Structure formats: C-alpha cells, structure tokens
Amino acid sequence: MVDIYNFIFDKVSDSVVVLDKNGNVLCSNNAFSEMNDELKVWGINLAKVFSEEDIFSKNKIELSNGKNKTVEISINSFEYKDNIVLILRNNSSLKDIDRTHIDFISTVSHELRTPLTSIKGFVDTLLSAGDKLDKDSQIRFLKIIKSQVERLTRLVENLLAVSKFESGRGENVYKEINVRKTLQSVIDSLMPKYEKYKFHNDVEQYFSVRADSDKFMQIMTNLIDNAAKYSKAGSEVWIRAYFNAENPNMIDIEVKDEGVGIPKEFYDKIFTRFSRIDNPLTRSVQGTGLGLYITKSLVESMNGKISVHGNGSKAGSSFVVSLPAFSAEISAGKFYQE
Ligand code: ADP
Questions:
Q1: Which residue of 292, 295, 297, 308 sits with most ligand 1 atoms within 8 Å of its CB, as the best mutation to test the pocket?
Q2: How much of the chain exceeds pLDDT 90, in percent?
Q3: With DSSP H G I counted as helix, E B as strand and the rest as coil, what are the percentages for the chain, rounded to 5?
Q4: Of all atoms in ligand 1, which is nearest to the CA of residue 281?
Q5: Is the pTM of this model over 0.85?
Q6: What are the φ/ψ torsions at residue 298 (nearest 5 degrees)?
C-alpha cells in the first residue's frame, strides 16, 4: 500500500513538499524537483517559499530573481501531525499565455482599424462631396476603398488560418506530392498577378514529398508570392529541389529571388506574427506580416523545417523548406548513386 502512495506522490503534476515545523524539507515529489530546476534557470530560489511567515494565510506568492523575471506560485497548505504540507503550482506560464493573447488581440484590432478608418474616410468624402469631384478622383477613391477591402479580406483569411492551426483543427492528410507538378500549378495560379515576372520551375521530375496537399500548396504559394512581391517588376524567381545534405530522407525545396533581400538580423523575426521589415518596397507592398508565421507553422506541423538565407553574392533572398521525402529509401537509393 505504501508503494502505491509513493507512486502517486511522484506522479501528481502539482509540486508537493513536506516540511517539519522548523521549515526543513522532509520529502518532496518529482514535480517539485522539476519546478525547482525550471526556476533555477531564471535564478529564482523556490526555497524562499518555506521562509514565508504565516504561510497558512497565503494562497499565492510572487518570487523574483531581483532583475527581469517574476513568477507567481499558488500555495495550498495544511498541517499534518507536526508537519506542514505545501502544494505549489507555477501560474506564470498561464499568465504568459494570457499576455500573448492580449498582445495578439491588440495588434489584430490595430491592423483591422487602419483599413477601416481609411475606408470610412473615403466613403464619407464620396457621400458628402462625391458630386463635386471629377470622374478621375471618384475612380481613384473607389480604387483605394477596393484595395483596403482586399487588405481586410486578406487579413481575415490569414487570421482564420492562424486560428485553425492554433486550435489544432485542420489535421494533415498525408499523401505523395510530386513537387515539380504541384509547384507548376502554384506558379500557374500566381501568373495572372505577376505577368511581368519570370518563374523558373527547375525541380527534377523525381522529387516527391510526404505532405498534406493543401498545406503544401499554401506554403509554396506564400513563398513564391513573397519572392515576386518583394522584387521589382520583371524580376526572376528560381525554384529548385535537392536531397538534404545531412539527411537524405528529407527534400529541400528552395525559392530564390533577386529582390530587396532580408538583413540577417531579421532572419528569426520575420517568422513571428505581424512582423514586417520596414523598407520602401515593404511599405509600398500590401501585406499582413502573418504569411511567414503561417508558413512556418504549416511546415513544422508536417515535421519539416524552414530557413532563410541570402542569395549568394547577389541581392535577394532564398527560403528553403525541408520536408520528408516520400518513400525516402527508394528515391534516395535510386538517385543517390548518380
Ligand atoms: P507580409 O508579406 O504579409 O508582410 P510575411 O509574413 O509573408 O508578411 O513576411 C514578413 C516580412 O518579411 C515581409 O513584410 C517582408 O518585409 C519580409 N519578406 C518576406 N519574404 C521576403 C522576400 N522574399 N524578400 C524580401 N523580404 C521578404
């Protein structure tokens, strides 16, 4: 029977510690040691809880490393014989999640308000003074309204995509995807938008990845769309595939452009929500700053990786998506001997 109590003691997820009446630790469970180790990384000493006076009247305390980190620990305490039993829980990770959501909502509200304010302004002008404006101005105003409505639509679509994968919906349906063929249909769907650009689908016919078809298309659409969007009209975009140098069970698909490029210090940041690099082209090009965040999440949901690089000595950038090869052994065996 004692065994089962010990077993349960170590399995419960809350930290439990038993102290004698002088505050010395008599025993503690695994969760307590883990929490202690976790807080030590921040320079926070969990033992401070034991020195709290009147611990029975407290149901939470804040511990700080005296610099940049404070955590909130909830306490449940009771006496057992001459000892004190404390049950502790770190509330801070929950608080951090709440904070991220609050920040997210405030950024989304701001992003929605900007185009709405502009639409309202132009509609008001057209209603109050539209008949006094010449035809060209009326058309110009209507075009601005249309582009702001498109911006809102794009933002809402991106937000729906974020909410779908963050809530764990939209499970992957894996199948064999022929990279060259699928990329060609992505390029064809983007062509009307980028008539002046040249897209080179240099992927060899034999590359297939194991991926969800819709997600693969969305990843490639985002990357190829960005490659053209952040390059001058008339630019070229190259797409290639090769076996990953370290792991031939993975296939690397590279989208390379000769556009404005991305400074190295932004390499991590561009994959986070709502981040846009401030340069004249980015300012003139419409975007939500959600595309690469979505792309990265989709790639990772399929056990892949994404990275960004420069375009050799030329201007521009290159994005590489690594995804598991379909029947890796067969294709690697067949094409690796060459
Ligand atoms: P959006 O394009 O909607 O702004 P993304 O998340 O797709 O959002 O991209 C984030 C930022 O990264 C862009 O605003 C742009 O500054 C930069 N960026 C993305 N792709 C490229 C690229 N191919 N060349 C240069 N800059 C890029």
A1: 292
A2: 46
A3: 50, 25, 25
A4: 16
A5: no
A6: -65, -45
